[in-house]
Amino acid sequence: MVSLNPHLPKGKYINEVKRCVEELGFVGIKLHPQAYACDILSPEADKVFEIASQLSIPVMIHTGRGIPFASPATSILRAKQYPKIPIILAHSGFCIVPSDALVAGLVCNNIYLETSWCIPPDIIRFIKKLGSERVMFASDSICNIPTELTKYYSIGLSENDLENCLGKTAIKIFKLPI
Fold first, then answer.
1. How far apart are CA 115 and CA 50, in angstroms?
2. Which residues is 136 bridged to in the sheet?
3. What are the angstrom distances between the C-alpha of 44 and each of 22, 33, 38?
4. How far is the C-alpha of 42 from the C-alpha of 55, rounded, in Å?
5. How many Cβ atoms are within 10 Å of 76's Cβ, its own excluded?
6. Is pTM, for the whole model, over 0.85?
7. pLDDT tens digits, residue range 1-53?
8. Is 135 within 8 Å of 169 (Cβ atoms)?
9. 40 — phi, psi (to 5°)?
10. Would you give the DSSP letter of residue 29?
């Protein structure tokens, strides 16, 4: 994932994203509103979605910790503005506002939920409401992989749902050659 400061001048930002995708094989852009002090709906964030649209790559948005910048609700307007771009809500609102992430997913078919740092009952709820094709495993840190995997293996998912969440959803969204 390309993760650049959206406060960079537009030309520099776009050129570096293009280089990362076209020359280095990056498969998406991550926007971390808290880290960059950048509201998802700000003019600075416009370039993130514009270049993702041009390159047909997904945008992952950090959500949860860092509200108000990291509110999942603001992703709804971007998802409606760019309906062909998959938008992944990293952490699905964390354990702070998971219902907001779920609402965003229910309102916009191009919003996907990534569940690192979510509690198991929320993961179950996401899958029941959106389907496993719109929910994906992530760890957020190499040290957190066992914990996050344990959540999925302990909540009683079908083999199909488990396969989707643990890989197939990400393979599809990121267009991975696997």
1. 26
2. 114
3. 23, 11, 7
4. 21
5. 20
6. yes
7. 999 999 999 999 999 999 999 999 999 999 999 999 999 999 999 999 999 99
8. yes
9. -60, -30
10. E
